[in-house]
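S1.2 Input.
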Amino acid sequence: MQLMDLGSFGIWQPTVRSTPELAAEAERLGYGTFWLGGSPREPLTQVEELLDATERIVIATGIVNMWADDAGPIAENYHRIEAKHPGRFLLGVGIGHPEATKEYQAPYPTMVSYLDELDAAGVPRDRMCLAALGPKVLKLAADRTAGAHPYLTSPAHTAQAREIVGGALLAPEHMVVVSTDADEARAIARKTLNFYLGLINYRNNWLREGYSEADLADGGSDAFVDAMVLHGDAKTIADGLRAHHDAGADHVCIQVLGPDPSAGQRALAEVLL
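S1.3 Output.
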């Protein structure tokens, strides 16, 4: 399977912040991929708008929620976008969270069935990736798609994931706050992490990594927060992001938190790209 060239680093932005202007700036700065984060919905017109505004950068979904949109229409969206912008769209899909989806049940068989439908509709496996945290889904990602897109993980998880996925794509996301004020950075980090600390799939993954229940209580321990959301000056953060590559990642997508994500993306580009 020929993997898409996503570049060493990309930008991850929630759908509400993913404007054509930001995608064009990410391309000018030298990032390889712009991840349309959250749960972009069918008919994926936002993907098309980002591609229209750029020339080279890959646009990836991180991720289309399998419970929110059926595989058939998503496959049609893929083919429409691919025809207009060949070779520049990576379809990221995932199962979402049981706490956020009342229909959530039997996640693994649902993922297999959804991927079966995308296969049957002609979506190439090397143009898809799968949100994955645990060993079973990481293996599924490697077997059935280009590879895995883990979210909110550490370089230690990346090293473990590489052993499972073998030569498949491994593209973890990592949150950062470009600030040397540790108290300010942790406050910004906890504001985002509080949501994920209530989700069982993320908690289970962090416990597998070796964090304790105490680490995950009351907004997270400082050590946990600092690992999940890097902070400091751009060089310090860059060193932390490169640790994912040292652990086996092919690509790292960066989610900059705080009042001015664009400024952080520019500062990181100067030391990373």
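S1.4 Remarks. The two ends are 27 Å apart (CA to CA).
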